[in-house]
Amino acid sequence: MSNCLSEAQRAIRASVCMASYRGARYIGEQIDSILVQLGPADELIIVDDDSGDDTVEIIRAVKDSRIRLIVVAANQGYVRSFEQAVLASSGAFVFLADQDDLWVPGRLELMIESLGHSGVVASNFTVLGGGSRGGVPKLKTQDSTHYLRNILGTVIGYRPYYGCAMAMTRDQAQIFAPIPRYLVESHDLWLALCGNVGKTMTHLAEPTLLRRLHEENVTPRGWRSLGTILRARIMILRALAEAARRTRAARR
Fold first, then answer.
1. Threshold 0.85, pTM exceeds
2. Is residue 57 helix, strand or coil?
3. Which fold would CATH assign to domain 2-251?
4. Distance between CA 98 and CA 165 in Å, rounded?
5. What residues does each domain of the chain span?
6. Per-residue pLDDT tens for 75-105?
7. Strands 67-71 and 93-97
8. Neighbours of 232 (CB within 10 A)
9. Which secondary-structure segment (H or E) carries 84?
10. Do 86 and 176 touch, CB atoms closer than 8 A?
């Protein structure tokens, strides 16, 4: 039985990892946009963070064996939910997905192609409905190998790395998860640090998803207090040191 399980796990090419929380309004559309791109042996792992609305019922109503739903009993926050989904995944390529965006057709194959020569890929996004990106700059392909600049930009906060637009290889997922316990936000910046410290980052200039901007987005849309910004930067500096440690350990 254990050998059969291992063979089944190896057959999974893509694992899509989603954290859901009170996502009843949009999650059905996002699931549809993902499933149409997955192969028959791929998986969509959704960790629901004690939503309390109809999110779980909407997910269960989608009768597709590729969906694996994990419902937690108490709210743990989106970082821990993404971590749980990644740790439960088995695919050779691991994608992160928000509950309220839409995948652009061809996203899966485009990003897997990039992961053939890198450990982490980060793409751009377009705002659903053609709205403004709110001053967020775009990633440039030519900056992919500017690892030190990318690290500096991640620490300072101007490199636009968004988890919903990122994916990684299985080897990189084993560095990414478990996520350091002190990281209570910015799992995407953690992944960006791991990829750039390991010199295995690729930027895709093409937008691979339609990002839905609304008042319930987790990513802040306005200015944060100076104290909050400083605490976040200290947290990211700690994460940078941990990314370096894990990368060295993986290479031994």
1. yes
2. helix
3. Spore Coat Polysaccharide Biosynthesis Protein SpsA; Chain A (3.90.550)
4. 9
5. 2-251
6. 999 999 999 999 999 999 999 999 999 999 9
7. unpaired
8. 17
9. helix 78-88
10. yes
